[in-house]
Amino acid sequence: MRVGVLTGGGDCPGLNAVIRAVVRKGIKDYGYEFVGFRDGWRGPLEGDTMPLDRAAVSGILPRGGTILGSSRTNLMKIEGGVEKVKQNMAELNIDALVAIGGEDTLGVATQLHDQGVKVVGVPKTIDNDLNATDYTFGFDTAVNIATEAIDRLHTTAESHHRALVVEVMGRHAGWIALHSGMAAGANVILIPERPFDIHEVVAHVESRFQTNYAPILVVAEGAHPKDGQMELSTGEKDSFGHVRLGGIGQRLSEEIESRTGKEARSVVLGHVQRGGTPSAFDRVLATRLGVNAIEAVHDQEYGRMVGLQGTEIVRVDLSAATDKLKTVPSERFEEAEVFFG
C-alpha cells in the first residue's frame, strides 16, 4: 500500500512528530510505502512530492515546523481541483491520504472523502479549538511559550510601574489566553467568547496600581469590547476567507493609558508562539495520534479523524471535528475571573 501524507495550515510544534510516527509505524508493522506532499493541499493539487522513508523522518521528533512544508491552499476554490487531486493520486499510485491540519485542512479532507478520496485526518492547531478532541498538539507548547513570556514581562512592568498588555493568538477561541494568563498570574484575561466591558478592565488596572503592583493583561487577538470591535485588521483575507486580525493589544493599551493616566505598553507574541521545539506533552500526543492515524488507514476507517478524549486516542467522523469550534465555556472563564484585579 502507498500512503500520502500532508500538513496544511499554520505551522505547529509537533507536526514532524506526527509524520515520523505515521511513517515508522506504517513501515514497521504494515510494510507500507509513504509519499510526502509538499506545502499542504498544493502538493496533491500539483503532484509535488518528496519521499518519506525511515531516513527522511530520522531525527525530526524534536524539530518544530514541518519537513513537508505548509500552505493555506484551498483546492475547493480552484476549478477542477478535486479531480486534479484524484488524478495525481492515481498517477502516483497513492491508495490513501493522511491529512494533518486544522479546521480548514480537515474541512477540505471531509469534502474530499465525500467525493471518494480515502483520507484519515489528524487534528492540529495551537488554538485548541477543534471539536471532538480534548487537546490538539501544539497547544501545550504555545501556552508554555506565552507563559514564559508573561513571567518575564511581570518584572519589567513592575520596574517601570506600567501596565503591560500581552496579545496572544486566538481568533475565535481564547484557550491560549486563558491557560497562559492563569498560569502566569495575569490580572485580566480577555477572550473572544466573552466581550469585555472596558470600564471593568480599567477598574481592574487601577485597583492593581493602588496596591503598588503593575498590572498584566493577557488578550486573545480576537477579543473585543461589548460595544463593538476594537481589534485592527488589514481587511485582507486568506484563501479560506479569514480576515487577518491584529491590533487589539495596542488599542487596549492606548485606552488604558488615556483613562488611567498610567503608562501602558503592548506586546504581541505573534508567531513565536507556534515556532520552535515542541514540548514533551506535544511530542507524546503527536506521536500517539500519528500511530493511531496509520492504524485507522490499515483498518480502512476512512473519513475519520483521530483525537484525544480523556487519556485515550479515539476515532471520530471528520465532520465532527469541523462542524463547530470548541470554544471556552463560561465556567472555565469564571475560574479565571476570581484572580482579576
From TrEMBL:
GO biological process: canonical glycolysis; fructose 1,6-bisphosphate metabolic process; fructose 6-phosphate metabolic process
Binding-site residues, diphosphate: 10
Residues where substrate binds: 125-127, 162, 169-171, 221, 265, 271-274
CC annotations in GO: 6-phosphofructokinase complex
InterPro entries linked: ATP_PFK, ATP_PFK_prok-type, Phosphofructokinase_CS, Phosphofructokinase_dom, Phosphofructokinase_III, PKF_sf
Site feature: Important for catalytic activity and substrate specificity: 104
PANTHER family xrefs: ATP-DEPENDENT 6-PHOSPHOFRUCTOKINASE 3, PHOSPHOFRUCTOKINASE
Cofactor: Mg(2+)
E.C. number: 2.7.1.90
Assembly description: Homodimer or homotetramer.
Reaction it catalyzes: beta-D-fructose 6-phosphate + diphosphate = beta-D-fructose 1,6-bisphosphate + phosphate + H(+)
Similarity comment: family membership: Belongs to the phosphofructokinase type A (PFKA) family. Mixed-substrate PFK group III subfamily.
GO molecular function: 6-phosphofructokinase activity; AMP binding; ATP binding; diphosphate-fructose-6-phosphate 1-phosphotransferase activity; fructose-6-phosphate binding; identical protein binding; metal ion binding; monosaccharide binding
Enzyme class: transferase
A Pfam family annotated for this UniProt entry: PFK
Function according to Swiss-Prot or TrEMBL: Catalyzes the phosphorylation of D-fructose 6-phosphate, the first committing step of glycolysis. Uses inorganic phosphate (PPi) as phosphoryl donor instead of ATP like common ATP-dependent phosphofructokinases (ATP-PFKs), which renders the reaction reversible, and can thus function both in glycolysis and gluconeogenesis. Consistently, PPi-PFK can replace the enzymes of both the forward (ATP-PFK) and reverse (fructose-bisphosphatase (FBPase)) reactions.
Entry coiled-coil feature ranges: none
Pathways per UniProt: Carbohydrate degradation; glycolysis; D-glyceraldehyde 3-phosphate and glycerone phosphate from D-glucose: step 3/4
Stretches assigned to the Phosphofructokinase domain: 2-297
Binding, Mg(2+): 103
Active site positions, chain numbering: 127
Key words of the record: Cytoplasm, Glycolysis, Kinase, Magnesium, Metal-binding, Transferase
Name of this protein: Pyrophosphate--fructose 6-phosphate 1-phosphotransferase
Species whose genome carries this gene: Streptomonospora litoralis
Alphabetical list of SUPFAM superfamilies matching this protein: Phosphofructokinase (SSF53784)
Gene: pfkA1
